[in-house]
Amino acid sequence: MKINKSTVKKIKNGNRKVTLELYHYSFNLLMSIAVRYHKNEEEQMEIVNSSFMKIVRNIDQFKIGSNYFSWSKRIAQNVIIDQFRSTKNYKSLFEHTESESFLDFEFNSKEHNTSMDTVLDAFAQEEIEEILNQLPPASRITFNLFAIEGYSYKEIAEELDIGYESVKWHIKESRKKLRSILKHNTLELE
User: Fold this and answer.
1) In 10 A of CB 6, how many CB atoms?
2) Same domain, 142 and 174
3) CATH code (residue 62)
């Protein structure tokens, strides 16, 4: 599907056929983002549909000639973050980490990219989703934003309105748990 001025105008005017085409065009991308953050199919579809509705409402803000998938991905990420923030007492999921000591944790992004890319290449998408779903919700969203979406610690702290040290703790704990899961899975294969 080509998204041009005519397509945008038709969607703004409520053309159902073009809107449905855009939904089908966007669905796989939106669902791939949703499954990284939610285990439950109902919650995944809620993310897909909320994201798509926001895309349709804001279609006139899409810059013709830019990458539609990048634009819609950002919208889906914002929907997920907004949904997470609206969860009653979501900050309490992060509170216990504020008093932890983080002096022992230094992150080497070059090492991270090499090792994580190697690990991610070794597993099928479904296996990765299954492994990530084993993380607690706060750690899962923090780790996804960092490792998958490429957000910095500072950006995550700002987006989720939590402390910088909390972000570091959740990423550190996620990495520990993921290493343990991967080690266990590797032992089972032998």
Assistant:
1) 11
2) yes
3) 1.10.1740.10
First-to-final CA distance of the chain: 46
Cβ 151 vs Cβ 145: under 8 Å = yes
**Torsion sign, CA atoms 21, 25, 28, 31:** negative
Longest CA–CA span in the chain (Å) reads: 59
Q: What is the pLDDT of residue 90?
A: 56
**Predicted confidence (pLDDT) per residue in 22-51, tens digit:** 999 999 999 999 988 888 899 899 999 999
Nearest to 128 by CA among 74, 69, 51, 181: 181
Q: Which residues contact residue 180 at a Cβ distance below 8 angstroms, ignoring those fewer than 6 apart?
A: none
One domain, residues 99 and 81? no
Structural contact between residues 48 and 58, judged by C-beta atoms closer than 8 angstroms = no
Q: Which two tokens stand for residue 24?
A: 């089908």
Residue that wins the pLDDT comparison between 112 and 91: 91
**Whole-prediction pTM:** 0.63
